[in-house]
């Protein structure tokens, strides 16, 4: 009789220990899952911030330089090769000045800007009416690729997107369809540079 009671007690202890181990494992997995979710949420917030701050920075730069009469650009279009090489080197990625002649805009030139994320480039275009578009480009390695988004602020619109580690914003006071057509052209031209 004593052996059976001892075995029952040992069996009961084993079952109790297994239950405690299962409970501890469940708590551990719950904490691990919560931590993974928190970190993934943080990364998503960083990507969202990178995408949201892009048009704000681009529109601010647009407003400052589009009004300039004497010095709208730092390097003029007649030095396009130098401009593109210089800006590409500063951004650490190859860019080029897209052709927007089919949309009625000619490259005026560009400049190097400063952003919280590091250097940024601004290319400026003008049409025969004197309207100006700017293309703002900066590093967006923390943000994943996005589709076109649009933001309208104080009379100007910005189409913006992130593609292969760079953030782009095309800003101007054009109607949505004309600005979208120009943004699509910019995207195609720049895609040709990045993809062999």
Textual characterization of the structure:
- The protein has 196 residues and is an alpha+beta fold.
- It is built from three helices and seven strands.
- Strands 1-2-3-4-7-6-5 form a seven-stranded antiparallel beta sheet, sandwiched between helices.
- Strand 2 and strand 3 form a beta hairpin.
- About 5% of the residues have low confidence.
Helix content: 40-55%
Gyration radius, rounded: 28 Å
- The amount of beta strand, in percent, is 25-35%
Number of helices: 3
- Placed side by side, the strands forming the largest sheet appear as 1-2-3-4-7-6-5
Task: Give the SSE layout.
Layout: H1 2-66, E1 75-76, H2 80-91, E2 105-115, E3 118-127, E4 132-139, E5 149-153, E6 156-163, E7 166-172, H3 176-194
Antiparallel strand pairs: 1-2, 2-3, 3-4, 4-7, 5-6, 6-7
Name a few traits of the molecule.
single chain, alpha+beta, 196 residues
Task: Provide a brief overview of the structure.
This protein has 3 helices and 7 strands. It is an alpha+beta fold.
């Amino acid at each position: 009789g004593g052996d059976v009671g001892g075995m029952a007690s040992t069996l009961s202890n084993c079952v109790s220990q297994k239950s405690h181990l299962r409970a501890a494992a469940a708590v551990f997995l719950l904490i691990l899952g919560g931590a993974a979710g928190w970190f993934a949420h943080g990364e998503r917030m960083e990507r969202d911030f990178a995408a949201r701050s892009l048009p704000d920075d681009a529109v601010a730069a647009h407003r400052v330089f589009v009004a300039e009469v004497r010095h709208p650009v730092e390097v003029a279009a007649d030095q396009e090769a130098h401009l593109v090489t210089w800006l590409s080197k500063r951004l650490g990625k190859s860019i080029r000045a897209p052709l927007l002649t089919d949309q009625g805009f000619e490259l005026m030139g560009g400049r190097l800007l400063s952003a919280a994320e590091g250097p940024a480039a601004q290319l400026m275009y003008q049409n025969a009416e004197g309207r100006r578009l700017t293309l703002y480009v900066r590093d967006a390695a923390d943000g994943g690729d996005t589709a076109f988004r649009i933001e309208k602020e104080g009379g100007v619109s910005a189409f913006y997107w992130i593609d292969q580690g760079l953030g782009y914003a095309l800003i101007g006071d054009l109607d949505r369809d004309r600005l979208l057509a120009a943004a699509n052209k910019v995207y195609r031209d720049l895609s040709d540079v990045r993809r062999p």
